[in-house]
Specification:
The protein is of the alpha/beta class and 245 residues long. It has a single domain, classed as 3-Layer(aba) Sandwich (Undecaprenyl pyrophosphate synthetase), CATH 3.40.1180. 44% of the residues lie in helices and 13% in strands. It has a 6-stranded parallel beta sheet with strand order 3-4-2-1-5-6, sandwiched between helices. Helix 3 packs parallel to helix 4. The protein starts with a helix and ends in a 13-residue tail after the last helix. Bound molecules: 3-methylbut-3-enyl trihydrogen diphosphate (2 copies) and magnesium ion (MG). The site of one 3-methylbut-3-enyl trihydrogen diphosphate has 11 residues, from strand 2.
Length: 245
Amino acid sequence: MSVESRVLSGYIPRHIAIIMDGNGRWAKKRNMPRTFGHKKGSENLKNIAIECNELGIKALSVYAFSTENWSRPKAEIDYLMNLPSKFEETFKGKFEENDIRVIFSGRKNRFPKNVQDLIKRVEEKTKNRKGLILNICFDYGSYTEILDGVKEISELYKNGDIKLEDINEDLMKNHLYTKELPDLDLLIRTSGEERISNFLLWQLAYSELYFPKVHWPAFNKKQLLKAIDNFQKRNRRFGGLKEEK
Ligand code: IPE
Ligand code: IPE
Ligand code: MG
């Protein structure tokens, strides 16, 4: 049986997250500027989103720019800020054909105005699509996400809209950027780094983690299938224990 048919006959994760890491190293190895790696990485996101949609995955959250990435050199930041508009121009046809909805998670008030407008436009245009939800985490940081959620909940409490007893896991979940998405099944971080770098800390509580060596621009359908195949062999216990027969 091919890996693909094995994967398709098993449990397809509903929500996958990817830390798309290694763009710079991938480019350096080819004696190219780091920005070339970001260009290839963004093209690869289109391909992987379409593959995920075809496999029947409901949501794909990708880490595209972290709240800490503002400390990179200005030229690299400028290049990264330009990628969403390139992304929109180049891929809108393909995403429409595949009925892919695009949402953005993160702080949305630190971008240049044109990027803020683009985010609103893309979210609005794709909001009724029924295929994969591509959640692009851009100026995203998990500490910020959780703190913003806590502030919203504090407001509700202060205004008397909720009682202390109403503050529970479900309420917190509903005040995170991912509130519309299924629980996170699998996190993939490319490029061999084995850390979370402030990504989806709450959502990762019971996700499976997978760290392939390949850099993001080279992560293809074959590696995606390998990741899901590996995931399907895991025994997710969620802290429980099956009765022994
Ligand atoms: C990931 O690739 C993309 C972003 C963080 C924007 P990097 O730019 O981190 O590439 P490496 O890790 O330096 O190779
Ligand atoms: C995490 O990668 C952020 C993105 C992939 C967008 P980094 O390359 O910024 O993370 P560190 O610095 O290696 O932890
Ligand atoms: Mg990196």
